[in-house]
Automatic annotation (TrEMBL):
BP GO terms, sorted: SCF-dependent proteasomal ubiquitin-dependent protein catabolic process
Presence of the UniProt keyword Repeat in the record: yes
Residues of the Disease resistance R13L4/SHOC-2-like LRR domain: 209-445
Cellular component terms (Gene Ontology): SCF ubiquitin ligase complex
Protein name: Disease resistance R13L4/SHOC-2-like LRR domain-containing protein
InterPro entries named in the record: Leu-rich_rpt_Cys-con_subtyp (IPR006553), LRR_dom_sf (IPR032675), LRR_R13L4/SHOC2-like (IPR055414)
Sorted UniProt keywords: Repeat
Coiled-coil regions listed in the entry: none
Taxonomic lineage: Eukaryota, Viridiplantae, Streptophyta, Embryophyta, Tracheophyta
SUPFAM superfamilies recorded: RNI-like (SSF52047)
């Protein structure tokens, strides 16, 4: 099911006298109304009711706003057909989102393209649109956002027809074979691109060279583009405004990280599922503006974390399924701004939890599959900002742990599965009135007792395991 809409952008207003005479134009098109139209009927109402006096919207303005509303509802209710779509030809629609909508093909693109310079945003993800359909958009020169994710009928030849759309600021072609060294040439002319999503594009090798001139690029997603090599990565070195970079599962090496080390404006960096070692992390030391770092399943241990201790702006750190242990956490003690810490599968003992007490701002903590006992939970009980706590697979936790965390009243989600928690300890959870999710699978508890607790003390609980 998709959604679509048209919206007002910063357009020049026409003279009211000109507007009046234009109402009686014989033209079948009313694109001229775009200059005065608000985004929707509710916007028309706000225009009249707002603090600044405004002229009353014309009948035609209200009609066009209604057309856009009808279009949106037809898509929302999944009843827009190719035949009905024809009624919206040349209607000055600004935003058309047909992602995952059934039956979208080249004929639909003809109607979309008829919006001409009015068209600002198109999403045809998961459609059967081909090169011919995509080519229809080449004259929509004001297009700002285009998404063609999972469109496997589009080739590199179709992609190249978009090269003239220099006003595009957001572009997404997930899992698209069209993104090749040849097809990616289209990106070079899109000098206003701020966001580019090429996740899972299998033939991207050799294509990143065409990104080096995109000086406004702030977000780049190359997740699971496993054809990328060190030689490809060097072309990113000049993208000085890059703030979000996703390289998860891209076979990143130390040489790649050397390129990244110069992107000092990075705030979000995902290096998960790569062959990153302790020695590689030295290249991250200069990225002092990082707020979110994902090292999930990387080959790092305690010593590598020493290179992260200067990243004082970090808010989220993902270290799940790494070789990190208790000794490594001491390197992180100065990162007091952390709000999310994931140590799933890390080798954390009770001694290691001593470092957790420095993270008073933690809202989400996962310490699963480790070696902590009730003694270790004592170092967690004062983290009052926690809303999510996952202690699953720590097999030595008992009812005492439930007692210790009973003061964490902000908790919304709690997981203590695969532990020694029993029915006798469930009463300790009564103060956790904000709990919405509780998982106690493979514990010594019964669904009947959990249900009693839910009815008696936890009215907000909606997800429970075991059921």
């Amino acid at each position: 099911m998709g959604s679509a809409c048209s919206r007002k952008r910063g357009q020049l207003l026409v003279d009211e006298e000109d507007l009046y005479s234009a109402r009686f134009s014989k033209s079948s098109s009313f694109k001229w109304l775009l200059h005065t139209l608000p985004r929707s009927g509710s916007d028309v109402h706000r225009k009249v009711q707002g603090p600044v006096p405004a002229r009353c919207p014309s009948l035609m303005e209200l009609c066009v706003a209604k057309v856009r509303e009808v279009f949106n509802e037809l898509v929302e209710w999944n009843i827009l057909t190719e035949e009905l779509l024809g009624a919206f030809r040349d209607c000055a629609l600004q935003d058309i989102c047909l992602a995952d909508y059934p039956g979208v093909r080249d004929a639909w693109m003809e109607v979309a393209a008829s919006q001409g310079q009015s068209l600002l945003s198109v999403d045809i993800s998961c459609s059967d649109v081909t090169d011919g359909g995509l080519n229809q958009l080449k004259d929509c020169i004001n297009l700002q956002s285009l998404s063609c994710n999972y469109c496997d009928q589009i080739s590199e030849h179709g992609l190249k027809t978009l090269s003239g759309l220099s006003n595009v600021t957001s572009l997404s072609f997930k899992k698209c074979s069209a993104v090749t060294a040849e097809g990616a040439k289209a990106f070079a002319n899109m000098v206003n691109l701020g966001s580019l999503d090429l996740e899972r594009c299998p033939k991207i090798h050799g294509g990143l060279v065409h990104l080096k001139g995109l000086r406004k690029l702030e977000k780049l997603n190359l997740r699971y583009c496993n054809g990328i090599t060190d030689s490809d990565m060097k072309h990113l070195s000049g993208l000085s405004k890059l703030a979000h970079l996703n390289l998860e599962g891209c076979a990143v090496t130390a040489a790649c990280l050397e390129v990244i080390s110069g992107l000092v404006k990075l705030k979000v960096l995902n290096l998960g599922f790569n062959y990153i070692t302790d020695a590689c992390l030295v290249h991250l030391k200069e990225l002092i503006n990082l707020e979110c770092l994902n090292l999930d399943s990387c080959k790092i241990g305690d010593e590598g974390l020493a290179h992260l201790k200067g990243l004082l702006k970090l808010r989220s750190l993902e270290l799940s399924d790494t070789e990190v242990g208790s000794n490594g956490l001491r390197h992180l003690s100065g990162l007091t701004g952390l709000t999310h810490l994931d140590l799933f599968g890390a080798r954390i003992t009770d001694a290691g939890t001593n470092c957790l007490k420095y993270f008073k701002n933690l809202q989400s903590l996962e310490v699963c599959g480790g070696l902590i006992t009730d003694a270790g939970v004592k170092n967690i009980k004062d983290l009052k900002a926690l809303t999510l706590l996952n202690l699953s697979q720590n097999g030595n936790l008992t009812d005492k742990s439930l007692e210790l965390i009973s003061g964490l009243t902000a908790l919304v989600s709690l997981n203590v599965s695969n532990s020694r928690v029993s029915n006798s300890g469930l009463h300790h959870l009564k103060p956790l009135q904000n709990l919405r999710s509780l998982s106690l699978e493979s514990c010594k508890v019964t669904a009947i007792e959990i249900k009693k607790l839910q009815l008696a003390a936890l009215p907000n609980l909606v997800s429970v395991r075991p059921e």
